[in-house]
Every structure is written in structure tokens, then in C-alpha cells.
Amino acid sequence: MTHTPKKRASDEGKDRVYIFDTTLRDGEQSPGATMTHAEKLEIAQLLDEMGVDIIEAGFPIASEGDFRAVSEIAKRSKDAVICGLARANLKDIDRCWEAVKHARQPRIHTFIGTSPLHRAIPNLTQDEMAERIHETVTHARNLCDNVQWSPMDATRTEWDYLARVVEIAIKAGATTINIPDTVGYTAPVESAELIRRLIKEVPGADEIIFATHCHNDLGMATANSLAAVEGGARQIECTINGLGERAGNTALEEVVMAMKVRGDIMPYRTGIDTTKIMNISRRVATVSGFAVQFNKAIVGKNAFAHESGIHQDGMLKNAETFEIMRPADVGLAETNIVMGKHSGRAALRSKLKDLGYELAENQLNDVFVRFKELADRKKEVYDEDLIALATTEAAEDENRLVIKSLRVVCGTEGPQTAALTLLIDGAEHSTEATGDGPVDASFNAVKQLFPHEARLQLYQVHAVTEGTDAQATVSVRMEEGGRIVTGQSADTDTVVASAKAYVHALSRLIVRREKAGKDTPEVSYKDVS
């Protein structure tokens, strides 16, 4: 039985642009951005609640874990179309359908590389590839009446061949044609013209939706996506925070806010509740381990900050002097109310809710205890501190390794030492270790108690707020046998935050090891089918 995608009340009219979020599929392909099953379900729910039209939940053939996640997201979805990715072969497409068929509105997204470089990989002639496209799109359409087809590396595909295969896909039953700029090669003027020409010259093109999928290798993903819409595309593929391979994908928050703010020259609308942007941005940053750069448009820490005296004076007189949108438009609290040790549980719950965090009672209790501990160490507790507490609680909730106590000795006279007590699956273990500095000593102590071969790829420290008593947020990225994991933690003691982030990453590595043992070897969308 097929499922007919339903339209929301605001979908009518040519000015409607559909938002296709691929954070859970393309975004997760960033090295180290792998999310747990629970995290995928949480992000999918947040995407659905904010009004994303289509959620690409994963690549079902990749692994049992991916299949389970896509299937569960499909069962839980409320309003969004749930989409799975499949290469151009029947096995992939069947597996994809098995995962998404539980959704109220399922979609199969199948693709094949059409540029000369990509055609050479499976060693197919143009005619052989055209036949495969017809066969696989037809098969997908026989299973599901909502089928998307993509010619990977479309912007480097010869025009005549691109037009030919797009026509074949439309005749085979594709309802959406996505035009990917897979390597971030095109420019805005080309992006608009390509879509415009396809719609004008390909038979049947006026009866389906064209989509755009841009990468940011040359820093033009947002501009290229908006140009494609100007050319006639009515679906933008994007990710939260621009997460994705290499330089990332088109950032959802950028295209959505650009169309909202500049409706005078871009008369298009989306179904996105923009007040939910900041919350999901923070959550994706936490679960992926990829911090948002301070000067990132829309969601960066400095996006609404003003330091110049002229700017500050203008802002005090009229906020519109130097701001084209209000912080509240993207869900950012306009006032940073300071909380202290006398603030109660109800005040904390209310403040966290304002910041986009609705915690269960047991989670609130844990955060409240940590809030009181922080308030005793810090005179003032700001919004950023509370966000760090909430995200750290979520990150550490499922840790297999937990630091019970850590004491370090450091200074100008070495060696620096660390005395550590670590809980490993609930069992207590203790040791002492030395190192080149307190962080190195702490990491060495962890390694003594939990031996591993993981290599530290990244170690970053960020101050959550200003002042010498500020919390430090630490991010680490580790690699072992091709598996890349990230860990995060926050504490007013940078060494403690570092050690907690390190064991958080190791806890995630344990999960990846066990997952690898249960799953068949993972398949990449780049593997030739």
C-alpha cells in the first residue's frame, strides 16, 4: 500500500518552499559526528516540531543501526515526510522502503552519480546508466508514491545528458528531482540558470518539484540554494548548523531566515517555526560534538553581540540600527537573567524551559544539584552556564565510564600527577599517573584504568561565559580503527571538564565497538552499488 503525502494548510501557492533536512543523514557523515540511536530520535522529533517538511532520517542499507533508527523515526513522525536514502539498485530501494513504510508520509530518495567522473566508477555507459535509472526509479515508485531522484554531481554533468536522465526519472515516476552540487563547485548565477533551464526544456518538468542540494566548499551553499529557488526550485536540502562533509551543507537557519528577513526580494515562505532554531542548533552541536563557531550567521554566539561604541549607542536608541532581526525571532532570550544559589527548583525549571530545555523530573533533579554546586563556586550563573549544565547532563546520562574523583598536582616543578577514581560499568577503579601537564596526566590515568588504542584527534577548550570563574566547555575527538567519536563536558575546573569529556568520548567508543560487533559492515553511500 502506498501513502499519499498530505499537504499542510499553508502549502498552497508557488511561493511555498519546502525544507528538506538531512542532518541525520548527510550531516552525520561529518567525521566524528555519529549520533546514538536515542539522539537521532530526539533530533528527528525536534525537526518535526519546528515544521521541517521532509526529514531524511538516514541510509537504511548502511547498517542495522541506521535501519532501526530510520524505522523508529518513521513510526514516531507526526507531520513531516520521512525519507530514506538508497543507491540505484533494487536491494537498497527495498531496504529503504522497509524502513520508511511505517511513516504517515514516507519517501524513497534514490540517486546515482551522473558526471563523467562518477560514471567511470561503476564503468557504465550513458545508455547503461540511463536504463538503470529507469529501472530503479520505476521500482521505487511501485513501492511508494513519493519518490525523489538525484543525479549526484549534477553541476558537473554534461547538460545534454543531465536533461536526458532527468526526463527519464520523471517519466519513471519521480515526484521530486533534486539537483545536487555535490562538491560545492557551482556559483549562484549557474545554480539559478541550471534549474531554470531544466524546468523550461525537460518534458514534464513543470509537473514535479525541483530541489537543490548544495555544499559549502567555496562558501556559497546558502547563496546557491537561494539562487536555485529564484530559478524555480521549491525544495531546499539543508542541515542544522550547516553540518556535513568537508565544509558542510547549506545551513537550514540561514536560508530560512534569509527568506523571512528579505521577503521583499525573495517572496517565498516556509513552514518553519523560527523561534525553535536556537534550541535545535545547540542540541545538534552537543550530540554531534561540532561546536558552532562564534561568528556563525544566525546561531553563533556573536550573531547578536555588539562591542563597537557606535554600534552599542545605536542599539540602545533603536535596535533596528544594527540588527536586521530580533534575537527572539530565532528563539534567543533577549534578557540574560542572572540566577544564583538562592534560586529554587521552579525558577530553574522555568528558565530552562525558556531556553528550550524541558527535562524529565529525574533529569531536572540532577541538573538542580549541579546548578547548586555551580552557584556555590560562581557568584553569578548565566544562561550559557545553564545550557552547559543541561547539555552536559544529557551527554553524560548514558556514560559507561564515570569519574568519581580526580585530584591533580601541577605547577612549574614536574612531573604533574593525577589521582583518579573511575567507575567502569559501576565498578570502582583507582590509579595515579604522571604526564606533561595536568590534562595529559589525567588522560594517562584514564588510559591505565581503561586501556585503549584510540588516538586523540582534537582537543578544544571554550569559556562558556566571561571571568576567571567561568565554566569551560571541552570537546575531544578520538579515532580507533576507523571509528571516530566525540565527547563533551563542562566544569569550572578545566582539567575536570577535560577528563570528563575524554571519558564521555570513550563511553561512546564502547557503544561503537558493540554496534560494530552486532551490525554487518557499514555501507557508505559512496560505495559503488
UniProtKB/TrEMBL annotation:
One of its GO terms (molecular function) is 2-isopropylmalate synthase activity. Keywords: Acyltransferase, Amino-acid biosynthesis, Branched-chain amino acid biosynthesis, Cytoplasm, Leucine biosynthesis, Manganese, Metal-binding, Transferase. The keyword Acyltransferase applies. Residues 17-278 form the Pyruvate carboxyltransferase domain. Residues 402-529 are annotated as: Regulatory domain. Homodimer. This is 2-isopropylmalate synthase. The lineage of its organism: Bacteria, Pseudomonadati, Pseudomonadota, Alphaproteobacteria, Rhodobacterales. The gene is leuA.
